[in-house]
C-alpha cells in the first residue's frame, strides 16, 4: 500500500466524519427556537405588549441595548422594521410561516415585528414572540411608529 493511500484512508475514517458533525449552535432550516420565561415589555403609543424572548446569544445582546426606542417603518403591510444601533449574533432559520406577533432579526441589524401571519421563504433569527397579539396591528398602525422595548418587571 502506498503511503498516500494510507493517509487518505485514515483521514476518511477518523477525520472526515468529524468534519461533517453539526455544531451545537446550528439549527436546521425549520427549527423554531424555544422561548424563555423571561418577559419583556413593548410599548407602542399607549398600548403595552408582553414579549417572550428566546434564550440565545442574539437576545443576550439585544437585552444589553435595553431600554431601546426605535422608529419602525412599515413593509408590505405585514411588518414593522428598524435598524438596531449595532449588529447582533445570528442563528438564522427558515420558519416557513411567519406568525403575527413574531419578533425576528433579519440579517444582523434589522429588528422586525410581524403583525400578520403569512408564508415566507426568508431566513430570520427568532428573537421572541408577543404573547397576546390582540390590538397589535391597530397599535402599530400605518406608516412609521415609535416602539420602546424594555425589561419587564
Describe what this molecule looks like in 3D.
With 153 residues, the protein is an alpha+beta fold. Helix content is 20%, strand content 38%. The protein has three helices and ten strands; from the N terminus they run αββαβββββββαβ. It has helices at residues 3-20, 57-64, 136-140; strands at residues 35-44, 47-54, 68-75, 79-83, 97-98, 102-106, 110-114, 118-119, 125-130, 145-151. The strands form two sheets. Strands 1-2-9-6-7-4-3-10 form an eight-stranded antiparallel beta barrel. A hairpin with a 3-residue loop joins strand 6 (102-106) and strand 7.
Please tell me the total number of domains.
Answer: 1
Q: Label the structural class.
A: alpha+beta
In the CATH hierarchy, what is the class?
A: Mainly Beta
Helix amount: 10-25%
CATH topology: Cyclophilin
The biggest sheet, with number of strands, parallel, antiparallel or mixed sense and barrel status, is: 8 strands, antiparallel, barrel
Q: List SSEs in N-to-C order.
A: HEEHEEEEEEEHE
Pfam family, one: Cyclophil_like2
Protein name: Cyclophilin-like domain-containing protein
Keywords: Signal
Domain Cyclophilin-like: 43-150
List the keywords.
Cyclophilin; 20% helix; disordered N terminus; 8-stranded antiparallel barrel; two-stranded antiparallel ribbon; 10 strands; 153 residues; alpha+beta; 38% strand
Topology:
Layout (H helix, E strand, L loop, with lengths): L2 H18 L14 E10 L2 E8 L2 H8 L3 E8 L3 E5 L13 E2 L3 E5 L3 E5 L3 E2 L5 E6 L5 H5 L4 E7 L2
Antiparallel strand pairs: 1-2, 1-10, 2-9, 3-4, 3-10, 4-7, 5-8, 6-7, 6-9
